[in-house]
Structure formats: structure tokens, C-alpha cells
Amino acid sequence: MGPGRCLLTALLLLALAPPPEASQYCGRLEYWNPDNKCCSSCLQRFGPPPCPGENPRPSLAWAELAELSSLASQPLSRLLDELEVLEELIVLLDPEPGPGGGMAHGTTRHLAARYGLPAAWSTFAYSLRPSRSPLRALIEMVVAREPSASLGQLGTHLAQLGRADALRVLSKLGSSGVCWA
Length: 181
Known about the structure:
By secondary structure, the chain is mostly helical. It has 10 helices and 2 strands. It has a two-stranded antiparallel ribbon. Helix 1 (about 5-15) packs parallel to helix 9 (about 150-160). The longest helix has 14 residues, at about 5-15. The two termini are about 20 Å apart.
């Protein structure tokens, strides 16, 4: 199965499935808190989840799914050249901390964990704000470590984090009118 087909399958599952009851970071012996919908490890690592109704998960249109599928095999480095799309993703994925210092769900910090970067790297990347975007730093780091990284891999991570809004922005790369061979 090619990367485009894997991404399309992940996106379809995201659009149809209810939110997960546990993350990949939940240990088998961790206490699951049904009120916070997370375990103590996730609460410590990512902060409290968004309040109910605060950030509803929008669904993707079929046209956007097709665009994302066509982008799946393109290099992740392309995102560094598409400044408008990158800026929109930065706004979505690099939010300012809330009044209580809590973090939103599905941020650059969570993406970094999916790419295997340690929490210390995320802390450092966030310490460089506002002069440097943690998302831009993450993309540059991933491209440097793994030049074959694709937009499909990023799309799959965003889908797993439930970030349909970021996937919608990413789909704009398919309609930019530029031919990427």
C-alpha cells in the first residue's frame, strides 16, 4: 500500500471514528481519568485537555481528502517553501499558552513527540518564541534528520492527533497551482 493510500485510509478513519479514549502515551497500568479523558502520564506530559465544546473536531470534505492524498508522497521540505500555508499552520499548532499556563491538544509539542524528538527539544524550541516558530524548527529538524520525510507522514500524524483543521490548511498545498516534480 503506497503512502497516499495509507494517508487516505487514516483520514477516512479520523473522519468516521469517535475520539480515542487513550493516547499512545498511556501506560497499561495508568489510571484513566474519565473526566479529563487522559491518564496521569498524558496530563503531566501534555497538560489538561481542551474543555468540552472548546475545540470541536471539524470533519474534512471529500475534496480535501483527495488533495491530501495527492500530496502524500511530496517531500516535507516543500512546506518550508510555502510560507502562507506554513504561517497558517504555525497559528494553529503553535498556540500561546492559556491563562493558566495550560497547553492545547495536538500542538507542535505533540507532533515532535510523534517524530521521536525528546520533550527537552520541545521545551527548547518553545523557549525561542516569539522570534522563532517551534513548528518551523520541528520541520527543519525532521527534514535534516530524515530527508525522505513526506507531507503524507505529517498528514498522518495530524490525523492521529485529531487536527482536521491543520489537515484542511495542509490540503491548500494541492491547490497552489505549482507543479512539483
